[in-house]
Amino acid sequence: MEAFGRGPGGAEVRVLELDDGRGMRARVTDLGAALVGLEVPDAAGRPADVVLGFDSAEEYAGEANPHMGATVGRVANRVSGAAFELDGVRYRLTANEPPNHLHGGGAGRLGLLVWRVVAADARSVELACESPAGSEGYPGRLSVRAVYRLGGGALEVAYRAETDAATPVNLTNHAYFNLAGAGEEGSVLGHELRVEADRCTPVGAGMLPTGRVEPVSGPLDLRAARRIGDGVAELAADPVAGGYDHNFVLRGGGGVRTAAVLGDPVSGRVMELQTDQPCLQVYSGNQVARGLAGKGGRVYGPWGSVCLEPQGYPDAPNRPEFPGAVLRPGEVYERTIRYRFGAR
């Protein structure tokens, strides 16, 4: 556990390192319960950090940070009009992507809170935070725990939440991956991606879902492994997305299963993403600012990474046709994300 700088309001922030003793190491900060580093061996056994990020808490708390590695919520993705109705009451949220609400809002979002370290050892860390009633406009006090576990060639992130009043909850991790080594190759366009989904939720203006669920087709048909660059080339002219920024409805349900497989032919690294979430947002970093200064002096930009974000249905609080995302008192929200690595 090391000092990592100062977060919002001058709060002291720390970073913790996990080591599985077999070539994998993870770095987690208590600012936003964020994943700030993940070293994984390639096919020749050479380790490299495969997630983008920054060198200090101040940078993670800065406006230039596009939620790198953060635990995002209360509600991941967008809430249309920055408002929703629940049990007959209309709630107004922070419109941090006007006119919509994105990834939990502004200063009170989970990704900007300094979490408590509840327990830690060489291979795991448990963090907790409280989101008070009214934070970013949400009802109810939400108690959240995040547990990172490293072992067996995988990093697992488990989320648990409880509330004292009904509130929407949809948590995910927003890590930006480049399996060649974050920032080294500068692009994931040569990476190959497979997604275990036959359907997706199309979007319209403002990247908001239309409410329909449609079969995947064209560049969104990732049922067989496909070069990310090929899909981005087809989507680049899309005035809405400009690349991959789409939600896929995963096959199966009721437990943790494979959601996607990402591979880098150059390094040989392969990441299998497993989750019990119903959906997966694939984002090819289209809007990452060109020249964004990252860890160790590396420079990031569009398509230099890919986010694979397991989540509930987007804009569920305003879409009765989608499965709901409301957590009520006495219920427990539990979700798992597992990043399993190998090489070929």
From TrEMBL:
Residues given in the record as beta-D-galactose binding sites: N77, R78, H174, A175, Y176, D245
One GO molecular-function annotation for this sequence? aldose 1-epimerase activity
Gene3D superfamilies referenced in this protein's UniProt entry, alphabetically: 2.70.98.10
Q: Which Enzyme Commission number(s) are on file for it?
A: 5.1.3.3
Q: GO:BP terms for this protein?
A: galactose catabolic process via UDP-galactose, Leloir pathway; glucose metabolic process
Cited Pfam families: Aldose_epim
The active-site annotation reads: H174, E309
Instruction: Kindly state which keywords UniProt assigns to this record, in alphabetical order.
Output: Carbohydrate metabolism, Isomerase
* Cellular-component GO terms for this entry: cytoplasm
Residues in coiled coil: none
- Pathway where it operates: Carbohydrate metabolism; hexose metabolism
Q: Which InterPro entries does the UniProt entry name for this protein?
A: Ald1_epimerase_CS, Aldose_1-epimerase, Aldose_1/G6P_1-epimerase, Gal_mutarotase_sf_dom, Galactose_mutarotase-like, GH-type_carb-bd
Q: Which reaction does it catalyse?
A: alpha-D-glucose = beta-D-glucose
Q: Which family does it belong to?
A: Belongs to the aldose epimerase family.
Identification of the protein by name = Aldose 1-epimerase
Source organism (scientific name): Nocardiopsis composta
